[in-house]
From TrEMBL:
InterPro entries: 6-PGluconate_DH-like_C_sf (IPR008927), 6PGD_dom2 (IPR013328), 6PGDH_C (IPR006114), 6PGDH_Gnd/GntZ (IPR006113), 6PGDH_NADP-bd (IPR006115), 6PGdom_BS (IPR006184), NAD(P)-bd_dom_sf (IPR036291), Pgluconate_DH (IPR006183). The keyword Methyltransferase does not apply. Catalyzes the oxidative decarboxylation of 6-phosphogluconate to ribulose 5-phosphate and CO(2), with concomitant reduction of NADP to NADPH. Its EC number is 1.1.1.44. Belongs to the 6-phosphogluconate dehydrogenase family. It is an enzyme of class 1 (oxidoreductase). Homodimer. The keyword Manganese does not apply. Pathway: Carbohydrate degradation; pentose phosphate pathway; D-ribulose 5-phosphate from D-glucose 6-phosphate (oxidative stage): step 3/3. This is 6-phosphogluconate dehydrogenase, decarboxylating.
Length: 483
């Protein structure tokens, strides 16, 4: 089959695909566009055809014929079964050396499976994370491609053109690693996104229910925070949301939205994967469970008569001091959740032999994506100066900040408990901090219990070997490793 003139094709033209296609076109590429339902293709060309060079295709065959070789087909359809259907449809029409890119939120194990199967057929498969939502897709997302280094040679320069730019001008994309590495990193991005959102939501509720601030006052506090070390897209949009008034009722918008958080699954995947890897990510897990708890109306209704503590209203000065403590607690907890995310990326990279550069991950999240934040530049610097840093908590600068925040952090968590305002993200982050820094954990007692009821054995602090105590007999200690 001879080649067409489009340098890239996008199939699946809902919010993400349509805007990515426009982004490619605005950057000077000729873009073939296709959608299962032709109406979306027609609408795109009618509304935005003037932005660049689009080649609309009604059928998959026309779409493939419109592409120059090697063909690059970007799929932006619903994750799961629909993605498999579309991959199969196009794999049939493509030729060895062509590249299929899946920019949906696919599970990285699906990406590994698809990559291996398509490799057998001579096709490159690039599972790529794309973050930034509708606006980012149009103006510059953060892009996390996996797949073979060869496929990045063909695709990378195009992705670098459409990606967001970090403050130092570098594009927010890089070859993350082979097969499922890109989708794995995107999954962890979303897990961190869940944790970040949960922590911000807790800060809001503490400021409202403990300090007594109104939503527009909290918006002002968040705007102030956004100028400092907490500066981030999520803090910025939270302030916007908190100033919005519901047109129908005149009430703060946040008060008319039902308090049941939904989820599409990437946060849950992060926790499930972390359990498999044996990496503790309690901050992300708490965020997933907090969403789940909010949605259990029947449990919440049944528990609603239970008593809580009496709250004492705060004066303005006390409230201002408390808000300062909440900033410290939010920042420290945020550092902890990012530390957990990076631990997980390292664990995944080791498990799957991906060789992911931890510093690069921070670099490509500095702009474009939902968790873009000022302090990502410092995470990048931490892993650049020490690629083997065992945890972000060991970086001297972050360690110093956590140490400085710890008293305020403890006070805020204590205030949440005293006032009956749940703050599972901040509490769990503090427990993680204390757990990691503890010279000795009660895991010793756990090991003894396991040995008592199940002869599961234990190791000693004072000598090598594996031991069991004869608990049911004379409590003699025996060595079980043959030593
Ligand atoms: N929305 C967001 O903010 C983000 C989304 N993503 C991911 O990007 C991908 C696209 O997201 P979004 O733009 O929101 O669109 P949706 O996830 O809502 O998917 C809609 C698109 O999928 C197509 N589609 C669904 N089923 C099939 C099928 N069986 N065969 C062919 N096409 C099918 C639809 O075609 P039709 O018009 O014919 O129904 C439409 O083009 C998803 O995987 C999503 O997880 C990633 C980052 C952010
Ligand atoms: O991928 C994303 C951003 O990068 C989306 O924001 C994410 O899909 C939202 O997830 P959920 O609906 O579970 O909150």
């Amino acid at each position: 089959m001879s080649g067409g003139r489009a340098q890239i094709g996008v199939t699946g033209l809902a919010v993400m695909g349509r805007n990515l296609a426009r982004n490619f076109a605005r950057n000077g590429y000729t873009v073939a566009v296709h959608n299962r339902t032709y109406g979306r293709t027609r609408d795109l060309v009618e509304q935005f055809g003037g932005e660049g060079d689009f080649v609309p295709a009604e059928t998959a065959e026309e779409f493939v014929a419109a592409l120059e070789r090697p063909r690059r087909v970007m799929i932006m359809v619903k994750a799961g079964g629909p993605t498999d259907t579309v991959i199969e449809e196009f794999a049939e029409l493509l030729e060895p050396g062509d590249v299929i890119i899946d920019g949906g939120n696919a599970h990285f194990e699906d990406t590994r499976r698809r990559e291996a199967a398509l490799r057998e057929r001579g096709l490159h498969f690039v599972g790529t994370g794309v973050s930034g939502g509708e606006e980012g897709a149009l103006n510059g997302p953060s892009i996390m491609p996996g797949g073979s280094p060869e496929s990045y040679e063909s695709l990378g320069p195009m992705l670098e053109r459409i990606a967001a730019r970090a403050p130092d001008g570098t594009p927010c994309t890089t070859h993350v690693g082979p097969d499922g590495a890109g989708h794995f990193v995107k999954m962890v991005h979303n897990g961190i996104e869940y944790a970040d959102m949960q922590l911000i939501a807790e800060a809001y509720q503490l400021l409202r229910d403990v300090a007594g601030y109104a939503p527009d006052e909290i918006a002002d506090i968040f705007r102030g925070w956004n100028e400092g070390r907490l500066g981030s897209y999520l803090i910025e949009i939270t302030a916007e949301v908190l100033t919005h008034t519901d047109a129908a009722t005149g009430a703060p918008f946040v008060d008319v939205v039902a308090d049941r958080a939904e989820q599409k699954g990437t946060g849950r995947w992060t926790v499930q994967t972390a359990l498999g890897l044996g990496t503790p990510v309690p901050g992300i897990a708490e965020a997933v469970f907090a969403r789940s708890l909010s949605g259990h109306t029947e449990l919440r209704t049944a528990a609603s008569p239970l008593p809580g503590p009496q709250r004492t209203p705060m004066g303005r000065d006390e409230a201002a001091d408390f808000a300062d403590g909440v900033e410290r607690s939010l920042y420290a907890s945020k550092v902890i959740s990012y530390a957990q995310g990076w631990d997980m990326i390292r664990a995944g990279s080791e498990e799957y032999d991906w060789h992911i550069d931890l510093s690069d991950v921070a670099a490509i999240w500095r702009a474009g994506c939902i968790i873009r934040a000022r302090f990502l530049d410092r995470i990048r610097a931490a892993f650049t100066s020490d690629p083997w840093l065992p945890t972000l908590l060991a970086d001297p600068e972050f360690a110093k900040e956590l140490g400085e925040a710890q008293y305020a952090w403890r006070d805020v968590v204590a205030a949440s408990v005293r006032n009956g305002v749940p703050a599972p993200g901040m509490s769990s982050a503090l427990a993680y901090y204390d757990g990691l820094r503890a010279p000795r954990l009660p895991a010793a007692l756990l090991q003894a219990q396991r040995d008592y009821f199940g002869a599961h054995t234990y190791q000693r602090t004072d000598r090598e070997g594996t031991f069991h105590t004869l608990w049911g007999g004379d409590r003699e200690e025996i060595r079980t490793d043959g030593g």
